[in-house]
Every structure is written in structure tokens, then in C-alpha cells.
Amino acid sequence: MPSLHVDDTTLHYEDQGSGPALLFLHGWGTSGRAWDAQVPDFARDHRVVTVDWRGCGRSAHPRRGNTIAGVVADLVALIDALRLDRPVVVGSSIGGTFATELALHRPDLAAGVIPVGAPAYWPSTRPQDQAELLTRLRRDRTGTVTSWVPGWYAPGTAPALVERTVRQILDSGVHIDEHQAAARGYDPRPALPGLRVPVHYVHGELDAAIPLEVARTCAALTPGAGLTVLAGAGHMPHQEFPDRFNAALRSALATVTAAA
């Protein structure tokens, strides 16, 4: 099992294919397996790397360091260790936050960023909701995750897919909750006009977790940014409608790489 020791933790990653590099970042509490429907397609003509960021999946679950800055530092180390040549970073949900922060702090390392359903500033506009979520997670983690996650998906999504996501989040444990707490104070909007890496936002039309308006606002603030809206999709379009998502991602990649 390929792994990399970084700072105080060990990261599991998978590295397939050859060509221009793509680095896929999953959402809160899941794993690189969230991209199972993308890897076979894109590994035909890209070098595709997926990573379980710290605290998730097959990576170690350290008690400290699970912050945005900590994850971004891990990504810098991973890119260096694998000698990835300026990958396009595709991030789902909070993975989109990590991708954006990497581009803001180390624009030399990324050829482009494609946030998918990224939360951006949204949790900071409702700090009370975030506080209540954290309270519910402490009191009844299983019940809270089981009732919350189905709302991430578009109507009609296979129950097995939802159950898989719930299981992954529960397996990741409590140390990922630091991200939910930090989200109350995170707002990238002031920094987006200075972003020097090409960005293309992808968002589900029916995303009930992060409204489409968030992606529209961020795209308007980010110089030269594009936006693709996937009709009928929720917060997890890469899993809900993989064929349509893959086509949209290829189009976004063409736009981003041309700009880069």
C-alpha cells in the first residue's frame, strides 16, 4: 500500500497512469475512493493521484494538526515527494477549500484548481448552525452523520452510495471535526481577487449542502474563473452522475490548462 510519512502522520495515496498530473482531494471524512468513477477514465491520459488526507480513510488519524494549514502542508510535501509537475488539483467539498488554499499560498505548485461543491465562505455565514452541528456530533455521532449525509446527494441516489459515505465518515472518527469548527471563521472571498492560478468551479444545481450561489459568488471574485453547473446534481456530482461529471471535468481541464 503506497504511503508517505509527512511531519507527524502517514498519508495513503494511489498513483496511476501517465501524462499531465491530476491531484484529487476528497471531502470531509471520506477518502480517495470517492473518485473511483473518475480514476479509470482519467488515468488513460493523465497521471492521476488520489490521497486520503490526514485523519481519513487509509491514512493515519493523528490527534493534532488536522487544520487547513496542516492539510495544505501535507499536500506540498506530497507533490514534492511524488515529483508531480504542477498538477491540476480537483477538490470535492472541503477538498476544494484545500485546493484553493494551496493555490493561494503556493501558486508555483499548481497548474489549476477545480473546486467541486466547495463550501468557501458559506459555513462562516451561519456560525450557529456549525456550533449546533458540532454539539450533535459530540452527543450522537452515528445518528447525526446518518441523518445528515443523505441530504448531500441528489434525489434518487442509490442508498448503497449514501451508506458507503456514512461508513467512511464514521470510520474517520472525531479528529476531523476540527475542520467543522474552523469553518465558522473561514472566508476566502478577500483573497480570491489575488488568485494567480486558473480556477474553474463545478457545482451541482440542487446542492442542498452548499448553495449554487456560493460558487457563483466565488467565480465572480476570481479573475478569469469559469463555472459549470450540473443540472439535477447535488453536493456529490462526481458520484451521482459520473459520466456527466467526467465530461464536465474534461471540459474544465481544457479551459484551465489553456489558461495556465
From TrEMBL:
Gene Ontology molecular function terms on file: hydrolase activity
Keywords of the record: Hydrolase
Domain of life: Bacteria
Keyword ATP-binding: no
InterPro entries: AB_hydrolase_1, AB_hydrolase_fold, AB_hydrolase_sf
GO terms for cellular component: membrane
Pfam families, sorted: Abhydrolase_6
Record-annotated membrane-spanning stretches: none
Domain AB hydrolase-1: from-to ranges: 22-248
Record has Hydrolase as a keyword: yes
Protein name, entry field: Alpha/beta hydrolase
